[in-house]
Design a protein that fits this description.
This protein is α+β, with helices and mostly antiparallel strands and 271 residues long. The protein is built from six helices and 14 strands. Strands 6-5-7-8-9 form a five-stranded antiparallel sheet. A three-stranded mixed sheet has the order 12-13-14. A two-stranded antiparallel sheet has the order 1-2. A hairpin with a 2-residue loop joins β10 and β11. The longest helix is centred in the last third of the chain and has 15 residues.
Amino acid sequence: MPSRSALKTLDRFAAAFPQCGFAGRMFFPCYGMAETTLLVSGGPPEAETTRVWVDAAALEAGRIEAVEPDAAGAKSLVGCGVPAAWLEIRVVYSQTRTLVPVGRVGEIWVKSGCVAAGYWGRADDTQAAFDNRLADTGEGPFLATGDLGFVDAEEIYVTGRVKDIIIICGRNIYPQDVEAAVAAEVEFIEPNGCAAFAVEGPAGEEVIGIVAEADRGMVRTAKVGPAQLEPIVARIRAVVAVEFGVPVGRVVFVRPGTFPKTSSDEPVEPA
């Protein structure tokens, strides 16, 4: 998902390969999915990657407020290009099925002849995903992508997934941001090596749970005794508290090679 970590990845890649003839304009950030076979937005080719900086607290509340890159609480987002000419895009409030106003985050809906007819043998899922219409006009049917985002200057920005959002005290916390912060703080955690999600706290409140894949060095450390892990857990709790202002409930470390990873939404069994 294009985010703060994506921006850093683009910058590091561009800095590593200029001697090979790579230029920043060769990046092609885009957005698509199997259900739209395939492209939703991207390009134009060899254009400079579009970046915006928004207020992180406002984004949590579903608002887009532009700020300077060095402003306190600034969050960078990478644009995913302009919508393809053969499809229609709407950004809507999922609950009311109405268009969001300019400057607001909503669910991205797509309509096009290249959108699939549905999921094979899954009538209920097909109805829920592919047969969506605007409540006030009846316009549709649209594919509800499940992705959150907004459109600015005709460019699509994807901010997260509807199902992944962690809601704590009315705030929308994007799990990928928490995961990136934890991975940056804990040296052994590789990219895509941890997951943040909502769990129930001791008083029934919603807090953040984190599962992270250990490395072999940490496994050896853990064998000495569970107390050896306490400083690492404390660091994770501290970085989430400082950066996001929310509590971490449980932190669980799993053995190397047992953290499920897949390029799709289908679950996989650990090796």
